[in-house]
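Table S2 (text version). Query chain:
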Amino acid sequence: MFVTTLELEDLNDNKILIKLPRNNLFKIHNFYLLSEWSTNRSGSTNTLSIYVDVEDKEKANKDIRFMIDLLNFMYNIDLTITTSYMISETKNLPMTKWVHSNETKNKNIIKINNALTLLFEMEAKKQKLIKKSLHYYSRSLKLSELELYEEAFLSVYKPIELISNNVYKNHHQKVFDDAISSVIPNLLKELFDEEFKEEGKDHDINNLIVPMLEEILTQRRKIKNTLLFLKLEREVDYCGKLVRLRNKAAAHGNSRNSNIGIYEYVNCMILSKEMITAYLLGEKSDVTQLDVKRKD
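Corresponding structure-token output:
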């Protein structure tokens, strides 16, 4: 059993209230979450402890970091912004009220449990893709808190790219490849009533044209097809601007030379969250939005 404890406070000394019943140990799959609030002479401390029931420290570290990424994604706040991350081994869980995720009416716990259940039921490749997407999204939240908006934009764009490439590969690539490879054969059939043969000048022309046609598959078109596949049609018009911003940011490599700010980051973040959620749940993003508040 391993544990890490996060101090839930942002860079402006605001407490992050994650809306979990305090001093209740919630069991969610092989994780345990414990929200605590303590007060002393120097003030109050608001913490979240994450326990994972595994014996290997390396695996525990990966699992806890994944849970942090998931919570950051669902709360849409970097819960670690003021915490020096470390994990420690513990033999026992704390002596406090223990509540199974199936035995609570707390909406946040229910949503976390539902998301984990769906994720763990996925095939390994898709699960790995979601975890990687959550990590990039989580990283972008920290960068945005530090007002590094260009870097945050590039990080939160990454899940859009990963999911789009995956959806294209699994659902569109064969149709695309068949379509461009049939251009010359169809043209010969229509114009000359001849079958295409894998030899001679027609063969050479086909080998020249097919690679050129492959270039019509841009990242914008991959993202567009993915949005349609995920039934996020309302976001399709944003594709072109999104990709242009990404290419501009990647080309600069320096936030002082870019016009990307919080507005551009937030728009990309909204789309990224919708895509991750739709890919994971097939439902609207509010399914993975947890109640949270900052308090000074």
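Notes on Table S2: The two ends are 34 Å apart (CA to CA). The CA atoms of residues 52 and 64 lie 7 Å apart.
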